[in-house]
Amino acid sequence: MTRDSKHRSPLGSGDAALRFRLAGEALANARVLNRTLDWPILVEGKRDKMALTALGFSGPIEMLNRGWPLERLVAHLYETYGVRRTADNGPSLCILMDWDRTGGRLQSELRRRLEGMDVKISEEPRTVLMKALKPETRVVESLRGMAYELLPFIDEYDDYQSR
Question: What CATH class does 13-152 carry?
Answer without folding.
Answer: alpha beta
